[in-house]
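Methods: example folding runs. The two proteins below were folded one after another, and each record is reproduced exactly as written to the output file, sequence line first and structure-token line second.
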Amino acid sequence: MTMNLMQGKAARFVPIVLGVLALVFAAVAAMFVGKAGDLEISLAEAQASASKAQQDAQAAKKKSDDALKAANAKIAALEADRAEAEKLKLLLASVEPQITPALEAASRVRVGKPDARAAGLVGLGLIGQVAHGTKHEASLQTLDRALAIDPANCAAIHAVNLGGAKKIDVTPECAALLPAPAPAAAPAASPAPAKDAKPADAKPAEAKPAADAKPAAEAKPAAPAAAAAAPAKN
């Protein structure tokens, strides 16, 4: 009898226990499913951030590559221009001995205007400066000879000033031949001192003694005394 009762009670508790276990397993499963969902969301966000960072890095790399290519292209263009300028210098240096006699002879002709006679020497001086540098002594001497014939020759004045050996005043008409230099940047304004601040080195104003003003006041009666002396002489 007792065994039957115990078996009956156990049969009633088994479904309850199984139900509780099922609920526990369901709660645990739900918890893991929620965590798995959060992990998937975090993983997706991390993947999106990594993809965006990779795209930004690629864009920055492309931008830097483009800037580097542009800089290299500019350098190559400048190098080509410099090489062409060097070739022109060599060509001018090669023809300089050939044209020098003709230009020298043209400057010695006494007939004609001074500017026309000086033009040959100016051209010869400029060719020498281009071929040998702005400080080329022979070229500067040639330009000085041109200025002796035509002191107002603007090209010769500018060329001599570029040499730096001496400075010649440039007239406004000559200054218009070359572009004006870029204006210098204005210096930063210094902060204004505070109104209430007093300089440390300032000394208090010294009051003048009253005795300094007395001689001037005492000197005034001298005029009436002179006027009184004048009738006495009459």
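Second run, written to the same file directly after the first:
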Amino acid sequence: MDTARKLSGELLKSPEYLEYKRAKEELSNDEYVSSLVRAYNALEMSLNMGSVIEKEPDSLNTKRFEELSSLIYETREGSAYLLAKMRLQSLMGEVFSIISGPIDFFNL
């Protein structure tokens, strides 16, 4: 667990996290765009959870998600936040792949 804590500390120093943190702080200054991002994040989680259980996505939710995406990407703060979030998620995915690779979680 000490190694995991060290890794966590290193991730908090990464350019991806620092950019995400900065974008998140800037986003918090705009209540309208922040509310759009909160709705986007909730809908994204709902759609992702549906795909995990192999549930066909609701067309209304998919349309709403696309609309929210468009509205958010039209703003400087919103697009900076979403792009920074994607970069950080990509980094976390790479870390998970490196850590879990030798464990062979996904091959039965």
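Comment on the second run: The domain at 12-102 is CATH 1.20.1500 (YheA-like fold).
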